[in-house]
């Protein structure tokens, strides 16, 4: 369908769905209505994927019921469920990369010939769905959340505004919004329209147009003035932020139109004074998920220095490879993992030297720190977008 027809059609469908939600659907059926809408939305990507997701939702909910019943095997049930969910995620996200890797090691083997490699199609939104499912069963095991009814849980996992690009909200935030009488709130509705408008402007007017200006410069850096290439690197960071935060604003805006308040995913990340604060304010939902369900369980709250640094580094590797299993994201994990370790070592160094603490407490240092952090992050985004050959050309143009 042409875009000049597609976008108006989506707009009409959305507002018909919103109007039906508030004017037609009885309160006791609103969650069921949104759950069915979400299944229909997922079905556009493929009926089989909708069935696959529904199966995993039913599996996690059933595991949760057994865990809540104080089953003596509840720990085994939890571990088995997590292994299944993580295994599914790894299969879909990394099988293709693994097969390509094997074909590069054994180029002569007929089994790994590139023409014979199967292509595993990644189900849209699988990362966010698996993260929500793991969060649910773990928190039930910890007795931190109610079980809820199946429809409420399924709606939390498959809620269509957050299906493709997050955020990965927490069940304890989402579940109370499905309870009680749901009344139309005009200020909330207007806020949703405003966030939706902001997201559209960020994504389709700012990010897309920046991309058209920036990518030609960075794809052929050897043909560009050095200052143009440097400016394009900073512009790339802004473009990625506008693109991703634009999608988030659209998701939050649509959610608000239906009366749901979803967690924020960005909080002025480019205005933070150090790399640790940047990551606490960039892609907040996934970063905090990895912290809560990977860093703390495996590396603890009171870890030794070596264990702490290892946990920081591996958490960043997991965060990057969660995006994609490519050499670029592998290097980006190294880049930010080492950056966080250096920052942590510097913090410890400051605590032992009072003059250093006094120097870095001066007001102008804050501005310098913010500019340095933004620069560090901006140059890292080159790994996010380009292949190794292009990255080398960009580095040569900037530094040589």
Structure description:
This protein has 400 residues and is mostly helical. The protein has helices at residues 3-23, 30-43, 47-68, 74-105, 126-141, 150-158, 171-174, 186-219, 226-257, 275-281, 284-299, 305-323, 327-351, 354-360, 363-385, 388-399. Helix 11 packs across helix 12. The termini are far apart. The model has no long low-confidence stretch (mean pLDDT 89).
In short:
This protein is mainly α and 400 residues long. The chain has 16 helices and no strands.
Q: What is Rg?
A: 23 Å
What's the main sheet like? none
Please state the structural category.
Answer: mainly alpha
Beta strand count:
0
Summed over residues and divided by their number, the pLDDT gives a mean of 89
Q: How do the SSEs run, as a string of H and E?
A: HHHHHHHHHHHHHHHH
Low-confidence stretches: none
Quickly count the helices. 16
Number of structural domains: 2
Q: What is the 3D shape?
A: globular
Strand content: under 5%
**C-alpha termini separation:** 47 Å
Q: Helical residue percent?
A: over 70%
Main attributes?
single chain, 400 residues, mainly alpha, 2 domains, 16 helices, 0% strand
Write the layout of secondary structure elements.
Layout: H1 3-23, H2 30-43, H3 47-68, H4 74-105, H5 126-141, H6 150-158, H7 171-174, H8 186-219, H9 226-257, H10 275-281, H11 284-299, H12 305-323, H13 327-351, H14 354-360, H15 363-385, H16 388-399
Helix pairs in contact: 2-3, 2-6, 3-4, 3-5, 3-6, 4-5, 8-9, 9-15, 11-12, 12-13, 13-15
């Amino acid at each position: 369908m042409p875009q000049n027809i597609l976008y108006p059609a989506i707009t009409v469908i959305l507002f018909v769905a919103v109007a039906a939600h508030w004017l037609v659907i009885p309160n006791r059926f609103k969650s069921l209505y949104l759950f069915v809408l979400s299944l229909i939305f997922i079905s556009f990507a493929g009926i089989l994927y909708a069935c696959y997701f529904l199966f995993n939702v039913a599996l996690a909910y059933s595991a949760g019921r057994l865990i809540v019943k104080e089953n003596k095997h509840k720990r085994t049930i939890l571990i088995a469920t997590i292994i299944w969910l993580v295994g599914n995620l790894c299969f879909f996200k990394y099988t293709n990369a693994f097969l390509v890797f094997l074909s590069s090691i054994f180029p002569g083997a007929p089994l790994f010939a590139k023409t014979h490699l199967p292509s595993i199609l990644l189900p849209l939104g699988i990362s966010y769905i698996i993260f929500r499912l793991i969060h649910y069963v773990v928190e039930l095991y910890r007795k931190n959340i109610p079980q809820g009814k199946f429809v409420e849980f399924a709606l939390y996992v498959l809620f269509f505004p957050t299906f493709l690009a997050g955020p990965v909200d927490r069940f304890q935030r989402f579940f109370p919004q499905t309870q009680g009488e749901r009344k139309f709130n005009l200020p909330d509705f207007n806020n949703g329209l405003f966030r939706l408008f902001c997201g559209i402007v960020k994504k389709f007017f700012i990010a897309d147009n920046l991309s058209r200006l920036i990518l030609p410069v960075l794809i052929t850096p050897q043909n560009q003035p050095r200052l143009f290439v440097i400016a394009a690197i900073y512009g790339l960071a802004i473009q990625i932020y506008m693109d991703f935060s634009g999608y988030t604003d659209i998701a939050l805006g649509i959610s608000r139109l239906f009366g749901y308040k979803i967690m924020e995913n960005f909080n002025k990340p480019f205005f933070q004074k150090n790399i640790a604060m940047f990551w606490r304010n960039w892609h907040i939902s996934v970063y905090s998920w990895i912290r809560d369900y990977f860093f703390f369980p495996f590396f603890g709250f009171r870890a030794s220095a070596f264990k702490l640094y290892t946990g920081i580094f591996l958490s960043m590797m997991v965060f990057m490879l969660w995006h994609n299993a490519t050499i670029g994201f592998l290097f980006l994990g190294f880049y930010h993992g080492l950056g966080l370790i250096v920052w942590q070592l510097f913090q410890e160094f400051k605590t032992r030297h009072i003059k250093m603490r006094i120097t870095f407490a001066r007001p102008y240092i804050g501005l310098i720190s913010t500019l340095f952090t933004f620069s560090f992050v901006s140059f890292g985004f080159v790994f996010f977008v380009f292949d190794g050959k292009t990255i080398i050309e960009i580095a040569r143009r900037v530094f040589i």
